[in-house]
Specification:
The complex is a heterodimer of chains A (about 625) and B (about 850). Chain A is mainly alpha-helical and about 625 residues long. Chain A contains 27 helices and 3 strands. In chain A, strands 1-2 form a two-stranded antiparallel ribbon. In chain A, a hairpin with a 2-residue loop joins β1 and β2. In chain A, α11 (about 250-260) runs antiparallel to α16 (about 330-350). The N and C termini of chain A lie far apart (about 75 Å). Chain B is globular and about 90 Å long. In chain B, about 40% of the residues lie in helices and about 10% in strands. In chain B, β19 (about 790) and β20 form a beta hairpin. The N and C termini of chain B lie far apart (about 80 Å). Chain B has about 850 residues and is an alpha/beta fold. In chain B, α3 (about 60-65) runs parallel beside α15, α19 (about 480-495) crosses α21 (about 550-555) and α24 (about 685-710) crosses α26 (about 765-775). The longest helix of chain B has 26 residues, at about 290-315. Classes of the chains: A mainly alpha (about 625), B alpha/beta (about 850). At the A-B interface, α3, α6, α11, α14 and α15 of A face β1, α8, α9, α15 and α17 of B.
Chain lengths: ~625, ~850
């Protein structure tokens, strides 16, 4: 079993690295590597399925041990395979193989041929990690891979500004919801120290004790998990991103947004179902979220006048239905539904260009018109009500406005505010933090420590918002993020000075990738004094090498599982212990928003049209 | 009250727009038709300056072509000497051609990026493009939706503006950006007043309003063009809606004003323009800079290197058939038929081929029995007055049921239906997916060349009005009277030179294309039939020409069709390389044999043709056998993952109007439109003028569509088709909120050589010029250089080309040109070559006779 899992994890990973490292590779070579690794993945998956079947369809779990072990902390690496993993693996491997076969011809002559397959392979890798992850921490790694691949595939045709803007929009929602998962993972650590893996979570005696931590704690965990799941699965109120994601080549949209990635949130809910079902109102929350999404998304799908948008909203509506099924405890039905939906939507998207021929033939056909379907529900509603509903649906349920106003605008607004009053920010924080804390804890040394922690973390949060709203200097934004990370580390260190080692692990990643990115940025600015962040510069066309370096830097600093920072972040969160909930929340916010600010720098500097018009007109 | 004329300003905006209508009848027209009254380079540069597009390739492109031998020395010399007369100047240019720096590769600033609307955006810091334009596009795409949405926009009869008004004012929840009182009050006005008031709120000085309107129109050029077309020709839509560009502009203006009001609140004041001169439109002749002049020479050298080969072909001695042919086959002039004709003649020298515009002179609307509305099946420049119905034969009582897929597709978007479909058919889709990528098979998804001939429909050709037969002109009639038939058939036979020496079997081969998963399917079908297969036209012609009454009338006008001659229609599927016959069930023994002979010969010819086509596909081995090639192209046509089912008109560059004797035995590499024409039947050039009336706009339109889509695929073309999203069944866009994309996708034009069409006519220069001048609209193309026009004298073989400066045909001297190669086997011409190969002479066949 472990061999099979290793095979199916390594195959796409190695293929991606191979393709990416090739110098002037031929299309044939890339396609061969991809096909081979796809088939290897298939073999591995079949192996897993068969073994799982013969072992009595029970779950399988294995602990590899921890990457970084200290007395009070460990980052466990473990695998866990059950029926859901098997189903998910089958879907992933089947659809990936189909899409590889599809794309090797479809993308012929596209300048991004190799890039596409690299992303596809990394995606398959990420999805496989999701499937076999044994704990929330490992799960998180796969989750991150899926998010970044998503960004890269949406912005595949990155010379169009709208495409990059949409890719960033989607990434920011992912990132925002990642904060939920990060906090959720931390909270489970805190609440149930012994629960490190999904396997333990399933054992009946643990399930009895889950509710011991109290309903309010369970409520918090459920909310966080639901936030993460809603973001990834395009549930209310994030439904709108799914249609915005239809910017890449059709096969990537098909596998991602039609089929697999959109079900990742559902997968998370499956995995964590013992936790949220332990909360009395958990199923109700999950079910109502699904219900709201089902109603809004299918309403929006009804009025879409473009094919891909229609399929996207339909798919989201169905994930909503699966949420309901899951909440009702009909796990097998939800699984079946997920299975059917993913293949069906994938197919619909792949053949979406056919709709011109197909639907027009129907529209122009007498026999079809005679058998026209039953009129929709809208025809029996009062006119004004129907009209309002139509307006609601046509505007994508006003969801984008809602999210922009409640989440995005406060963040950038805060950043701008800090930007405008920079000095006051630095000078004002200290006394405020001091004053507040002195009032709360009248205990001398501890109060001083608390003040230091508070100042550091607030500075960190301030800097990250500053970086997010920076419009002028990319380098300033870059440094602000690095500094914000430094302050974040400092805040935990100030809180607990014994964890120098953990801070070092965190910082090595940050420093290394910060320098890498800084170097790239300095190079990218070229002759100009600075690369501003008010437009898209599209420098990837001119300097692909440095852009790639910057991208690595972005991934590294934001704690992608290629740098020690990934473990570092988890450790810092872990050490911001129990009674300082606010510190943990602020840390999670900092880490997520930092990732967002970094990706924004990359998008603005490297992607986009970089359009500049020739000022020399025809006259010479 | 207002100091400008709204209607006139909107109308002025129309002249900048493309002429592309809904994608279902994609017709290739000159994308720069609005600039056609200018000389070619001036027009291209004006358009480039207006739209921010490249108008010629970069210097690097041409220099590489020179190094690769694509541009020949003689071509380059000719381009220099034709353009520049003083020898000092010529010398300087020769240096510049190779030394001049490449210069900036940036596009010029398009009109809307340097206009009043842009100024408004920058001065007031209002993001109209991110908050305004998506709303406008969303509204219009729902309004004009042809059947994607399950819940269509509730439309009113008064048009787009009124529909938006109803929608906004009837909603409980306000519709951003129309959620201010200001916006709502604007919507309550009439469309025109709303536009005027919106402009007054946006601009202080109404003199700039026309420019603002133009900026607005050009900020969504795709939809504006679509609306403009649909407004002029409402029948283009199946599900028609009253629409006007004025309404569209009004809604756009109201949205702009509303967004500004919403973002600026009380700071929203009209824009004051400081420097009025900055917004003059580029009306002056853009004088070309040095770089442009050099590029122009390079470009002409690029063209001449090919043109010279074509002139060598027609100037060579004629190759005639030794014996009378047993079968004559008339194909469409389409460049894709260029190679199949050669292969047929090669396999069976008893077959003589002809070329004529693929609608065979049949100017009608066609209505298949299951069609709700008739559709035009002849060139877009004609206005048909006849309707032909394809009727269900009596034997077949049931209507072929619609493919199930369609229903599933609709159901799957509702909640309950969707649950059923995904749960029940999810598994089935798994197998479907597998089959679709592993073993592609014909699906109901695609556009099938013969779909509208299915069920062996019978054509209703004969008019009810016979024999009374008088119809008021301008009215639509069903079918044709015998007189009308004789008129159509006669002129068609005359113009192709088929009016004498008719063989026993005459086959009219229409063409169509079978593709799947292809939004631009109409661009693969017959351009002369408005993006549809030409089979109804070929069938109609064959039926007419076989009617004794018609033959009697033809005899009276000196066109004798022998008793033994029989006309038969066929359809060539250019993607799958298949030929199918129509109405051959009741043939006599002799004709049956001939049809069988043609079928046998065509089998080999089609395989060879597929083999020749396959060498262009980079993923196919050069050593593929003809039979494998045939299998490959057939599989390719039904593969949902194949963005290039065939390469369509990608080779088009030449049009030869003349006898087949001029080109028989030459390997033209599918580069020429070929229209048969016998100069001996046409001493006055009247027939020629008729042919030019179809060849120039159809061939030139195709040529320039490819030319400009290749020149700047982002502006004139629609970019790569891989991410395309179908919007409202009228067009494609990128993503869900992009503008409609006009022109051809990159996959169709990437291997195209941007060369203007050279029309060469087989006629004396003076007659040829006079014929071209008969129709001013056609002559405009030639005079302004949007197509090049050459002639070859049937008697002296002297070649000539039209010169704009002298307004005459100037003789050409071909002595300095490298002679064409002679090659033994056809395959040797293109061995191991993916790209175009030079035109070559094929070694003579015994059945061919070279005239002295």
């Amino acid at each position: 079993m472990l061999t099979c899992i290793l095979i199916l994890l390594l195959a796409p990973m190695i293929a991606a690295v191979f393709i990416a490292s090739g110098r002037r590779p031929s299309e044939r070579c890339t396609a061969l590597i991809a096909t081979f690794s796809g088939l290897t993945h298939l073999v591995g998956t079949l192996g897993v399925i068969l073994i799982w079947y013969w072992q009595g369809q029970h779950f399988f779990s294995h602990e590899f041990g921890s990457i970084f072990q200290t007395p009070e902390y460990g980052f466990p690496v473990s695998v866990y395979v059950d029926s859901m993993s098997v189903l998910w693996l089958f879907m992933a491997t089947f659809l990936s193989n189909i899409v590889i076969k599809f794309s090797r011809v479809y993308l012929h002559k596209d300048p991004g041929y190799h890039r596409f397959f690299v992303c596809l392979m990394f995606l398959l890798f990420g999805l496989s990690i999701l499937a076999v992850a044994g704990s929330l921490d490992t799960f998180m790694a796969g989750w991150e891979f899926v998010g970044v691949c998503s960004f890269l595939l949406i912005s595949f045709y990155n010379e169009r500004n709208m495409t990059v803007r949409n890719a960033f929009k989607v990434y920011s929602i992912y990132r925002f919801c990642d904060a939920g998962l990060l906090l959720g993972a931390w909270l489970t650590h805190v609440l149930w120290h012994e629960i490190q893996s999904f396997a333990i979570l399933r054992s009946p005696e643990i399930q009895l004790h889950l509710a011991d931590v109290g309903q309010s704690n369970l409520f918090a965990v459920t909310c966080l998990i639901l936030l993460a799941a809603a973001g990834k699965s395009a549930q209310f109120p994030f439904t709108f991103w799914l249609s915005r994601a239809m910017e890449g080549p059709t096969p990537s949209s098909a596998i991602f947004y039609g089929a697999l990635s959109v079900h990742a949130g559902l997968f998370l809910l499956f995995r964590t179902s013992p936790i949220w079902t332990a909360f009395d109102w958990g199923p109700v929350m999950v079910g109502s979220l699904g219900f709201i999404t089902m109603i809004t998304a299918s309403g929006i799908a009804r009025v879409q006048s473009n094919i891909k948008g229609q399929i996207a909203y339909s798919s989201a509506a169905h994930v909503g239905i699966m949420f309901i099924e899951l909440a009702l405890g009909w796990k097998s039905l939800a699984m079946l539904h997920m299975f059917g939906n993913s293949f069906f939507r994938c197919y619909q998207l792949l053949v979406s260009p056919s709709s011109v021929a197909l639907l027009l033939r129907q529209q122009g056909s007498k026999s079809y018109q005679l058998r026209r379907q039953i009129p929709g529900i809208e025809s029996i509603l009062p006119k004004k009500f129907a009209s309002s509903l139509y307006v609601f649906a046509l505007n994508d349920g006003f969801l984008e406005n809602l999210v922009r106003r409640t989440i995005w605008a406060p963040m950038t607004g805060l950043g701008k505010l800090i930007h405008r009053n920079g000095r006051f920010f630095i000078l004002g924080l200290l006394p405020i933090a001091l004053g507040a804390l002195a009032l709360l804890h009248n205990e001398g040394a501890a109060a001083w420590r608390l003040a230091a922690v508070a100042t550091a973390i607030l500075t960190s949060v301030g800097l990250t918002f500053l970086a997010l709203s920076e419009t002028e200097s990319s380098i300033r934004a870059w440094n602000a993020v690095a500094l914000s990370n430094a302050f974040a580390a400092a805040s935990v260190w100030a809180h607990d000075s014994h964890i120098l080692r953990e801070v070092l692990v965190f910082s090595t990643g940050i420093v290394f990738f910060w320098l890498l990115g800084l170097q790239a940025l300095l190079f990218l600015r070229g002759g100009k004094s600075v690369v501003n962040l008010s437009t898209y510069h599209g420098l990837v066309k001119v300097h692909p090498g440095s852009s790639f370096m910057l991208f690595l830097g972005v991934l590294g600093v934001s704690g992608f599982p290629i740098s020690p920072t990934f473990v570092g972040q988890d450790m810092l969160l872990h050490h911001a212990v129990d009674n300082y909930v606010w510190l943990t929340i602020l840390l999670a916010v900092t880490f997520s928003v930092n990732g967002l600010a970094l990706m924004r720098i990359y998008a603005k500097v490297c992607l986009g049209s970089g359009i500049e018009y020739s000022k020399h007109t025809a006259q010479t | 009250m207002s100091s400008f004329d709204l209607r006139a300003s909107v109308h002025a905006g129309r002249s900048w727009l493309s002429y592309q209508g809904p994608i279902k009848d994609f017709v290739c027209l000159n994308p720069l038709m609005a600039f056609q009254q200018h000389e070619f380079y001036e027009g291209a540069h004006r358009a480039g300056a207006a739209f921010g597009a490249y108008s010629l390739m970069g210097l690097g492109f041409y220099r590489t072509a020179f190094n690769d031998g694509r541009i020949t020395k003689s071509g380059l010399e000719r381009a220099i000497t034709l353009r520049i007369h003083s020898s000092e100047e010529q010398q300087r240019v020769r240096e510049d051609l190779f030394q001049y720096p490449e210069g900036s590769t940036l596009r010029p600033v398009p009109i809307q990026e340097s206009g009043v609307r842009q100024l408004f955006k920058t001065v007031k810091r209002v993001s109209l493009d991110t908050h305004g334009t998506p709303v406008l596009l969303r509204l219009i795409s729902s309004y004009l939706d042809q059947g994607v949405a399950l819940w269509a926009m509730p439309r009113t009869k008064e048009g787009f503006f009124a529909t938006v008004r109803d929608l906004v004012l009837n909603s409980y929840k306000s519709f951003p950006p129309f959620d201010t009182l200001f916006a709502k009050s604007l919507l309550q006005e009439t469309s025109e007043n709303a536009a005027i008031q919106a402009l007054e709120s946006l601009l202080e000085d109404q003199r700039f309003s026309p420019r603002y309107i133009l900026d607005l129109i050009l900020s969504t050029p795709g939809w504006s063009a679509m609306i403009n077309q649909v407004e002029m020709k409402p029948h283009l839509l199946l599900n028609s809606a009253p629409v006007s560009l004025l309404d569209f502009v009004s809604v756009g203006l109201v949205i702009d004003a509303a967004v500004a009001k919403r973002e600026l609140k009380h700071d929203f004041t009209p824009l004051r323009v400081q420097d009025p001169l900055a917004f003059d439109l580029p009306t002056k002749d853009p004088r070309l800079g040095t770089l442009d002049r050099i590029k122009k020479i390079w470009h002409e050298a690029y063209e001449w290197s090919l043109y010279e080969q074509a002139f060598q072909v027609v100037a060579a001695p004629n190759v005639v058939l030794k014996n009378n042919p047993q079968i004559q086959a008339a194909f469409c002039i389409d460049d894709r038929e260029c190679s199949i004709r050669r292969h047929l003649e090669w396999v069976d020298p008893g077959i003589e081929t002809f070329g004529t515009a693929g609608f065979f002179g049949m100017d009608f609307l066609y209505q298949y029995y299951d069609d709700l509305k008739p559709s035009q099946n002849c060139p877009i420049v004609l206005t048909p007055r006849h309707l032909v119905r394809g009727e269900r034969p009596l034997g077949k009582s049931t209507i072929k049921s619609q493919p199930l897929d369609g229903y599933i597709d609709r159901w799957s978007h509702s909640i309950l239906g969707g649950i059923l479909v995904t749960q029940l058919l999810g598994f089935r889709t798994l197998f479907r997916l597998l089959r679709a990528v592993l073993r592609p098979r014909a699906e109901s998804l695609g556009s099938n060349a013969s779909s509208r001939d299915a069920d062996r429909v019978t054509l209703k050709i004969h008019s009810e009005l016979e024999p009374a037969g008088t119809v008021k002109s301008g009215e639509m009639t069903e079918g044709y009277t015998y007189d009308e038939m004789a008129d159509r058939v006669g002129s068609q036979l005359l113009s192709t030179g088929l009016s004498k020496n008719l063989a026993d079997l005459v086959i009219l081969v229409a063409h169509g294309s079978t593709t799947v998963n292809n939004t631009h399917f109409a661009a693969y079908d017959c351009g002369a039939c408005m993006g549809k297969p030409g089979s109804p036209n070929a069938r109609a012609f064959a039926i007419m020409a076989n009617i004794p009454e018609v033959r009697k009338r033809l005899k009276a006008s000196n066109i004798v069709i022998p008793e033994s001659t029989y006309f038969v229609a066929a359809l060539h599927d250019t993607t799958r390389d298949e030929i199918q016959f129509f109405d051959v069930e009741n043939l006599g023994e002799a004709h049956r044999k001939l049809v069988d002979r043609f079928t046998t010969s065509s089998k080999a010819a089609l395989a060879n043709n597929a083999r020749e086509r396959c060498r262009r596909f980079e993923q196919i081995s050069f050593s593929i056998t003809p039979q494998d090639a045939l299998n490959h192209v057939r599989e390719r046509s039904v593969s949902i993952f194949e963005p290039r089912p065939e390469l369509t008109h990608t080779g088009n560059a030449l049009a030869i109007v003349g006898r087949r004797d001029l080109t028989r035995g030459f390997f033209m590499d599918r580069r020429a439109f070929m229209n048969s024409y016998d100069p001996s039947l046409d001493p006055t050039g009247k027939i020629l003028a008729g042919i030019l009336g179809a060849v120039v706009p159809v061939g030139g339109g195709i040529n320039l569509t490819y030319f400009f889509s290749r020149m700047d695929n982002h502006i004139y073309g629609s970019g790569t088709k891989l991410p395309h999203n179908v919007v409202g069944l009228v067009g494609v866009s990128n993503g869900v909120e992009g503008d409609l994309l006009t022109g051809l996708p990159n996959q169709m034009v990437e291997v195209h050589e941007p060369v203007r069409l050279l029309v060469i006519v087989d006629q004396e220069a003076e007659i040829a010029l006079a014929a071209a001048k008969q129709n001013p609209a056609i002559f405009e193309w030639i005079q302004n250089g949007w197509v090049r026009y050459g002639a070859v004298s049937p008697t002296s073989k002297q070649t000539s080309i039209y010169d704009r400066g002298k307004d005459s045909m100037v003789p050409l001297d071909l002595s300095a040109v490298i002679p064409l190669k002679t090659i033994e086997a056809q395959e040797a011409c293109f061995a191991n070559q993916h790209f175009y190969v030079p035109i070559a002479r094929l070694a003579a066949r015994p059945q061919f006779l070279q005239e002295a």
